[in-house]
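My main concern about presentation is that the manuscript never shows what a single data entry looks like. Each protein is reduced to its one-letter sequence and a matching series of backbone shape codes. For the editor and my fellow referees, an illustration may be useful. For illustration, here is how one protein appears when written out as sequence plus structure tokens:
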Amino acid sequence: MNEHSQPYSFSNIEARSELLFRKLVAKPQVRKSRDEAIRQNIIVEEAMPYKPTEEVRPPMAQLSYERFDVRVSRGEGNQVRTEVLRAPDSDDTEICLQPQEIFTYDTVSPESGPATARNLRPSENDADILGATSSSSRATFAKTLGQILLPGRCYDRFLRSWDRVQQKNRGLRIRLRTEQTELAELPWELACIDDSCLSLERYTPLVRYVETGGRSPGSVTVPGVIRLVGIVSKPENTAALNTTKERKQLKQALQGLIKEGRVELEWLDHANLTSLHNCLIRWGPHVVHYIGHGSYDASNKGGRLAFESPEGVATNTTANSFAMVLKDSTVRFVFVNACESGHAAGGLAEVLALKGMPAALGMQTRVLDDVAISFANGFYTALSNYFPVDRALVEGRLQVFAEKSAGDDDPYLHPHWAEPILYMRAPDGQIFDEM
């Protein structure tokens, strides 16, 4: 390890904020009181409330990230091969081999009682979330994931990269590539490094990356006005969801930008592929947000969404059909807020990324309705404050953690925050362009 490397820890955010503040106020042109500096968003740690005025407009980049690309694959025998492909400290590739049995993760829910999930498949317990049977076993599993993700010299590269970007007040976007299905299906979003949950830290968002056969990654950035279409599907023969609450919160989160003319919002009720296709032709939306039921067919390795037939009942639309309609359209980002929409190996978000979508967000397991709504609210609130998609992902996770933790500081007691999964091929997550 580099002798100048410091332990990777985010436990003292306030101290680092004070240090950044002292560096900034030491310059004559920014001599301001600390309270005034915070109001003007000089210290950027928390999302500031949106105020639609020119004088207080939040900066376009609240926190910029540099790439830390990691690939995990199956080696010979029982070995796992971890490669650092790209990092801020060097362009050299680091390869680490370690003996590790590949295992599947038990997703039996530790919770009980009635709950509504956004899933098409019948289940004895709809409250199926990422989790083993206890918080301690989940924490142990999270540490194991962290050891596989960043072992030995790869961990040292991470520390050196962290030191470098920290000096520039930037973060590290961890882009994970997985070679085999058994690895892709592991919930890497739970990974713990030095007692820190990577996916809950604003400085280290973890996103998935997939190869697309040489197709260049597109950009999520939209010049000018962003058009967002909300798709609402609630077939009569599926469990009722609180779509009204999610619609209301999404509109509230974007209200300031709508009034300012930065965002246009339209809804498709009783949606199906035909109405979505017509919307793409007629309006050319940039963002698609789906509210409804989803599932993953393990036998056929494919995701499905429940759209509405003319008779009002569910029609199972495959991930490939959904992606085919959206491919090469005006859409830059898709959020499928439904169960198992982020499942690896043919899930909706992954297929969208494989078809060239710059960024796609889904849920990797069955998700509770209130969790889905809570995450969407936190995500779009951050997005409306000009945060990039990967930073908004973290803010959505933190919103779920805050609501589900009930004051407990153990993140693995209720790990609902790990359910969202972002596939991102775009080099930057900033949706809003400078105006």
User: Anything to note?
Assistant: The first helix runs from residue 13 to 25. The two ends are 44 Å apart (CA to CA). Residues 28 and 262 are 34 Å apart (CA to CA). The first strand starts at residue 65 and ends at 74.
